[in-house]
Amino acid sequence: MKKVYIETYGCQMNVSDSEVVLSLLADAGYGRTSDIAEADVILANTCSVRDNAEQRIRGRIDYFAQYRKARPGVLVGILGCMAERLKEALTESGKVDIVAGPDAYRSLPALLEAAFDGHPQVNVLLSREETYADINPVRTDDAGVSAFISIMRGCNNVCSYCVVPFTRGAERSRDPHSIVREACDVFRRGYREVTLLGQNVDSYLWNGPAGEEVNFARLLEKVAQISPELRVRFSTSNPQDISDEVVHTMARYENICRHIHLPVQSGSNRMLEKMRRRYTREWYLERVAFIRSVIPDCGLTTDVIAGFCSETEEDHRDTLSLFEEVGFDAAFMFCYSERPGTLAARKYPDDVPQEVKVRRLNEIIALQGRKSLESYRADIGKTFRVLVEGPSKKGSGQLCGRASNNKMCVFEAPGCKAGDYVEVLVRDCTSATLLCTLEKTCTAKN
Ligand code: SAH
Ligand code: SF4
Ligand code: F3S
User: Fold this and answer.
1) CA dihedral in degrees (167, 53, 391, 398; nearest 10)?
2) In what order do the strands lie in the sheet with 31-32?
3) Pocket test residue of 8, 13, 103, 199 for ligand 3, highest count of atoms within 8 A of CB
4) Which of 41, 58, 212, 301 could in theory staple to 4 by disulfide, Cβ–Cβ 3.0 to 4.6 A?
5) What is the pLDDT of residue 443?
6) What is the pTM of this model?
7) Which of 143, 218, 142, 232 is nearest to 182 (CA)?
8) pLDDT tens per residue across span 278-302
9) Domains plus CATH for the chain?
């Protein structure tokens, strides 16, 4: 039996896609290995969102080359967004045998077969329909607690800085029945959390053959109804599209986790317009106020870009003041990276000097560090229900798991294991972890 080794980069959608790929390849008779040295096929599922993500993959391709050389017949395949963006150019190095874009994974067995005959293979066709709805992903999460489920693919927005619409194609929603079936299936297998994934989950919309219409709020509800013991998370919410109905649905079901990832990108209206985000600072702040009025304890996290085209100190201060005002629990913070082919690359000079981008980014990071600590401190004295994920990273015999608001908790809980629910009391914190003691063990995994 031939063996496949796979590395996954980029977002959660790629993690989910790698599971689809492993499933398709298992059906075609390939086994999986975590030891690159014994692999017949070496795959990297890649990301193009920033230049440094692509540079990292280039380094990996060079690294894979030694295994390809050492054993004749070993194939190297590049999947995902970078495959879609660079296409044939990837095979020109002579170090890559297969290039398959995000909608081309069903063709992988055929591509591999042809490539074993010595001909590089490229399939980067994007589809308007493909959702891999019928594929039962091979779960790669070893603890068996938390599963990613893609509910849609692609993106119909045109944020001017973003390469995703080019690499992932048009937005399409997956059949809700197949989503609910998959969630039921993982729950039956002992998983206790699912995360519903899409670039813009609020634009999920399914029109069934019999006139049935399912929007994201309805889908969320259907998944939440599977069992109160199954936690439901979702990502990503676009500030423009997050609906009152979704927030009210969250409030109605305790097992829908109280956390929204709501990428703001900038606090400046001038930048937001140039980024082609379809909301203003005021709209964003209103959405935050609305969420907090319905779910006062809702966790909020965000993404932000420092140094987008023509960003002034005033624009940057608007971002800082928005961060000050909202008080996110955490944020993913990036320097703007120009992506070839995007609207921004075509229309706007990337004119903020690198050192200015980095300085602004560092100012945002410093402010957010302070805000995170404030937010985590505010939880001291509270009790949370936590889903145990496994041993804490630091070792020391402690366990870790997240509270509903997505904050990581560490605690001692002798006899408890991944998949159990426990109740903990927050005693202390850092800016990224709640340090807790066990109050009681709630439910044991069967
Ligand atoms: N669909 C999500 C974002 C997916 S990309 C949304 O609309 O929010 C994840 C994050 O990468 C984005 O939120 C953005 O902050 C960042 N990002 C995207 N393109 C970028 C670029 N060209 N340079 C720097 N950061 C970028
Ligand atoms: Fe990119 Fe915007 Fe789509 Fe998010 S919503 S993936 S930032 S184009
Ligand atoms: Fe990267 Fe593609 Fe995800 S560009 S962030 S892997 S959608």
Assistant:
1) -130
2) 31-32, 3-8, 41-46, 75-80, 98-100, 121-123
3) 13
4) 41
5) 65
6) 0.96
7) 232
8) 999 999 999 999 999 999 999 999 9
9) 3-123 (3.40.50.12160), 146-377 (3.80.30.20), 383-443 (2.40.50.140)
